[in-house]
Automatic annotation (TrEMBL):
InterPro entries: DUF1249 (IPR009659). This is Putative cytoplasmic protein.
Amino acid sequence: MQRLPASRTHRFSVGEKKLSLTRTHLFVTISSSSEAISDNISLNRKISRKNIMNKSEETTLKKKYVPHLPSILATCENNYACALKLLPDCDSEDLSYEFKISEQLKYNIKILDSARYTSTIMMSQVANNTPSFLRPSMEIRLYHDAKVAEVLSCQRVSKLQPSYEYPNLNMHMRNEKQMVNVFLAEWLHFCLEQREMQISTSS
């Protein structure tokens, strides 16, 4: 029985190792590729979801605000009723009412003009040590036939629109007009609580 040369046995052993290493390398490469593909798929899904959410938010922002007329009308009717309680004589022009909250703060309501069906008043907040241009004020129209009060201008901003696209150059809220009428309601209710302090003067 003849033995194989040692060199041939050595080559055969090295070949097996090379084959084994090649298979291992191929398995690792395939596994790494699979993991990379899986990661890419997950990343693409996250990006797709984010894009869909961003588009949804953009659509919501661009969607035009539609005023809820019943709630706006209810606020204006309530403001009219409160204004009449504060102004027993709203037919007299150049008449003003003062509601003193403290030594530093008071509210002033002045009747600008009065007609058969409408009256226009100016309501302002007066605080000591505050420049006049920083004092909040509102011009309000009372409609006696419809029994509603509407804010014509607020903080020197007039011609308020029923709705605004957002964002806008002046950074008005979408329901800016409704919110200033709600703000007026808060002022009127606050002054009603201070009615005992009112002072009427004729200028």
